[in-house]
Design goal:
The protein has a single domain, classed as Rossmann fold (3-Layer(aba) Sandwich). About 40% of the residues lie in helices and about 25% in strands. The protein has 8 helices and 7 strands. It has helices at about 1-10, 15-35, 55-60, 75-80, 120-130, 145-150, 155-160, 170-175, and strands spanning about 40-45, 65-70, 90, 105-110, 130-140, 180-190, 195-200. Strands 3-2-1-4-5-7-6 form a 7-stranded mixed sheet, with helices on both faces. The N and C termini lie far apart (about 50 Å).
Length: about 200
């Protein structure tokens, strides 16, 4: 009980919220440089998006025609109450998405795949939504970062809250299982997360 209270209090703190903001801004900067630059009329979807804040930030980029924030529930999106929300929120299941296959230029997620029971199926579903030649990005907690260290503590709720942790090789293998080819790796939030941008064969 005390462990659960500690986790809820942590998420409500200003430093934690500041870190989440920096993480989202860093991700948007990475995607802008490596997935959006030099292109026009792009259609993007952040799946299992939570609040959808990063999708909201991406919607303001001139290269983007449509930025979708997709999630199975409205709880995080409603609680965030983002002023002037610029993305298009879609209530849908990642495993049965209400989106056309092969229709998106970029399908992406950060910090959700590690909590999903069937990560390989989740990434395969993301890949199915991407156009041939389109991009998929997945970001997860690093086995060799802060999350990996916390996973070693004998605290079941903390371990569940963190979800799975991945090495770079494990993340590459996860995306390769969906037929995706690596384009660029990154780490963010002071090495807490690693990410891989990959391409669907054309």
């Amino acid at each position: 009980m005390a462990e659960r209270i500690w986790l809820h209090r942590l998420e409500a703190t200003r430093p934690y919220q500041w870190l989440r903001l920096q993480m989202n801004k860093g991700l948007v900067s990475f995607l802008s440089r490596h997935a959006l630059s030099g292109r026009q009329g792009l259609r993007l979807a952040e799946v299992a998006c939570g609040s959808g804040f990063a999708a909201h930030l991406l919607a303001s980029h001139p290269e983007v025609a449509l930025s979708i924030a997709a999630d199975l529930n409205l709880e995080d999106y409603t609680q965030a109450n983002i002023a002037g929300f610029s993305a298009s929120f879609l209530l849908t299941d990642l495993f049965k998405p209400a989106l056309q296959a092969n229709s998106l230029d970029l399908v992406w997620n950060s910090s959700s795949i590690e909590e999903i029971d069937r990560p390989h199926e989740a990434v395969a579903s993301m890949a199915a939504l991407a156009k041939p030649g389109g991009l998929v990005f997945v970001g997860v907690p690093s086995r060799h970062g802060v999350a990996g260290l916390l996973r070693r503590l004998p605290l079941p709720r903390t371990r569940a809250w963190l979800g799975r942790v991945y090495s770079r090789a494990e993340l590459r293998s996860l995306l390769a299982s969906a037929g995706l080819q690596p384009v660029r790796e990154t780490s963010y939030l002071f090495g807490t997360f690693i990410g891989l941008l990959a391409q669907k064969p054309g």
